[in-house]
Amino acid sequence: MEIQNLISELNYKAVRSSGAGGQNVNKVSSKVVLSFDLKKSKALTEEEKLLLEANLSSRLTTDSILILNCDEDRSQLRNKEIVTKRFLELIKKGLTVQKPRKETKLPKSAIRKRIKNKKNVSQVKKNRRKPDLD
Q: Which SUPFAM superfamilies match (predicted)?
């Protein structure tokens, strides 16, 4: 994966930001929406595409398009930088393969403690019974 090729495939769109900001919000399109088509990407290999599709499945549309937006700053350029940085971090995170979890064995002391506790509870319940007078 080459970062420059990946960045060249990004589509940016500037839209009007919502929320507070007075008259500036009504005039300036400072919010940046980034879209990235995962299936049509030439910068990623097929294995990387499959891995990203699996890891980022909740963030992708049905057409495998990743959409991110940013309206943190009043500057369109700054928002573009922020959303690009976020995109690259997301891709790097999505491409990492998690190590398989090794199951650990229960320590013998934990087993002994559990059995001892069960015996104590059993004894407490025995002591609650009515005495057998025969």
A: Release factor (SSF75620)
The pLDDT, as a whole number, for residue 131 is: 85
pLDDT in tens, 23-34: 777 778 889 999
First-last CA distance in the chain? 84
Question: Which amino acid is it at 89?
Answer: E
CATH number for the domain formed by residue range(s) 3-95: 3.30.160.20
pLDDT confidence of residue 114: 97
pLDDT in tens, 49-68: 999 999 999 999 999 899 99
Rounded to whole angstroms, what are the CA distances from 82 to 15, 31, 38? 15, 11, 20
